[in-house]
């Protein structure tokens, strides 16, 4: 009986030690990516692209509600601003918009790098849309660019969770929500040309999310995909990091059709990443392509493919993670055109 009791004691001890070891096992990037979920993306987007936000026209009351929504998310998750404590708004005066809009603001939050805090990865999306049509219909802009906005909020949460575990990024990661995109890329231009909170020479890369929640006609009968634009225009290494992250973690169909220099759509010049690219900051523009609801009241949250959006958001998180944690920043080997 004594021997049996001793064996039971040893067994309990081994199980206890094993359990303790598993609890203390260091998490990796895939654990943090799991915090990016369909349910959270959907819940946020149904609010952000609701009629309450009145189409988020630059400088108008609906856009002010949008920036408050974004700010509150960062405050609730204890993700600080790089501007000043509690100050998440980069104010842009009315005069800057040349009569196209009233005064507006970008929203900035960040995770400070643990080893190279002065080097920064910028993840951007535009917070504005086109407002209310002349017939009174609200343009909710669920895909354009509600999808990119809520994706950044989820990516920020994932990085914050890693930081809480003592596994924060080596480089700083800036979550940049820009205004005035729909009327001429004003918010991103203000950040790059007037008030770059992080100097552009210290900006490693910009990952720009603009319409990543839908499926275009070309891919209607296929697997999950995403158009990538600009990834190899300034840095071959950036393109290689992006490809490797996709292959290792999610294996989306990456479509480079719009990356052709002779692309008649000229999408490379038409979203906020371009204001970084023109300053020789390597960029990737993530895009699902156009659809019949583009810039129409019918761009509503019920038409988003949330499973696709979750995986696409994870890809961008994984890519940002690799850029933020690799030993050397990606090299710029080409010049902006």
TrEMBL record:
Q: Which residues form a coiled coil?
A: none
Boundaries of every Peptidase M28 domain copy: 106-318
Q: Which chain regions cross the lipid bilayer?
A: none
PROSITE patterns, A to Z: EF_HAND_1 (PS00018), PROKAR_LIPOPROTEIN (PS51257)
Among InterPro entries, the record links this protein to: EF_Hand_1_Ca_BS (IPR018247), M28_fam (IPR045175), Peptidase_M28 (IPR007484)
The protein's name is: M28 family metallopeptidase
């Amino acid at each position: 009986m004594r021997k049996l009791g001793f064996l039971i004691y040893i067994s309990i001890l081994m199980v206890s030690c094993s359990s303790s070891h598993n609890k203390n096992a260091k998490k990796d990037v895939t654990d943090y990516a799991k915090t990016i979920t369909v349910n959270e993306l959907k819940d946020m987007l149904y609010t952000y692209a609701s009629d309450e936000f009145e189409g988020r026209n630059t400088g108008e009351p609906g856009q002010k509600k949008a920036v408050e929504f974004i700010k509150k998310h960062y405050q609730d998750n204890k993700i600080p601003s790089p501007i000043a404590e509690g100050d998440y708004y980069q104010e842009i005066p009315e005069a800057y918009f040349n009569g196209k809009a009233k005064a507006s603001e970008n929203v900035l939050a960040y995770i400070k790098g643990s080893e190279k805090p002065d080097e920064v990865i910028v993840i951007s999306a535009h917070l504005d849309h086109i407002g209310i049509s002349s017939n009174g219909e609200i343009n909710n802009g669920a895909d354009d660019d509600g999808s990119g906005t809520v994706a950044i909020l989820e990516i920020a949460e994932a990085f914050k969770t890693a930081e809480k575990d003592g596994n924060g990024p080596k480089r700083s990661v800036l979550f940049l929500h820009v205004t005035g995109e729909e009327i001429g890329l004003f918010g991103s231009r203000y950040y790059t040309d007037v008030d770059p909170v992080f100097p552009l020479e210290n900006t490693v890369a910009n990952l720009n999310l603009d319409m990543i929640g839908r499926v275009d006609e070309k891919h209607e009968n296929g697997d999950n995909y995403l158009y990538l634009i600009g990834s190899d225009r300034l840095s071959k290494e950036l393109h290689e990091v992006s490809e490797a992250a996709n292959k290792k973690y999610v294996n989306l169909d990456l479509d480079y059709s719009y990356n052709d220099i002779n692309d008649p759509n000229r999408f490379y010049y038409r979203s906020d990443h371009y204001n970084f690219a023109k300053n020789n900051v390597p960029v990737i523009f993530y895009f699902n392509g156009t659809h019949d609801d583009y810039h129409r009241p019918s761009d509503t949250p019920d038409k988003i493919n949330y499973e696709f959006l979750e995986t696409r958001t994870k890809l961008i998180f994984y890519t940002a993670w690799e850029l933020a944690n690799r030993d050397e920043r990606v090299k710029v080997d080409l010049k902006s055109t």
